[in-house]
Amino acid sequence: xxxxxxxxxxxxxxxxxxxxxxxxxxxxxxxxxxxxxxxxxxxxxxxxxxxxxxxxxxxxxxxxxxxxxxxxxxxxxxxxxxxxxxxxxxxxxxxxxxxxxxxxxxxxxxxxxxxxxxxxxxxxxxxxxxxxxxxxxxxxxxxxxxxxxxxxxxxxxxxxxxxxxxxxxxxxxxxxxxxxxxxxxxxxxxxxxxxxxxxxxxxxxxxxxxxxxxxxxxxxxxxxxxxxxxxxxxxxxxxxxxxxxxxxxxxxxxxxxxxxxxxxxxxxxxxxxxxxxxxxxxxxxxxxxxxxxxxxxxxxxxxxxxxxxxxxxxxxxxxxxxxxxxxxxx
Length: 330
Description:
The protein is α+β, with helices and mostly antiparallel strands. The protein is built from eight helices and eleven strands.
């Protein structure tokens, strides 16, 4: 029991430390950017340009203090929100990685946009003379996305935490003959994502070409990549446990047999329980690969972790996973 408590404490410490580090790092990025911009106040027009229209030139203006207040206010709230989710709900490594990446991305993106848009106004007497911010947007997109991916990669994974009890007697099971090998493969997908996403991507591309806002094409490409990556998953149950992976191979989530506490069939409402569709984190910390309303496979994992995947024939998947976990002899 003492070793189990020690692992639990280490896991909680890892979750809390990750949340605290990424939140503190995000706030430092915002504060440093605001400080740098404030140091330029003698070189900036008053008011400064704070918004650019589709024509490429500025069409909105504000005081420097107002711009920095928005950066620190909105940016700080988002950083603390993502960091708080990582701290409180990051029982699974995938949740911690998503939270850490989101924190890094939002702090860097907002900082680069604000600092970059102010840097092109230095030395101007009238902010209306500021040119396009296309280069700034490009720098913000690339300068925030790449570090966010790196942050997600370096966040530590989960500690090995074998379950300490047998699968409950009332859990569903598939009958297996001694020595029989069995595997189950299902697919979780969303046609609605393509029906909505593809026309939206075409529309954004058209707007980018017509208005010559070329950074929109990069945003469009990122949206298309996310659509392809997060709208189709392969779900597999075999003697290695449960594996849920995107159709393109990443992201991937795996539960080894010795960490399966129980698998069941449930019904899920993506918006009500997870705040939307896709790869999500629920208010209770559950990981959700929820692409539609209805039948889903739910797997409880050691350490208070769990995953919900909307997939057809979830009953067979749950029964086989429980039976294979029984056979693993823990």
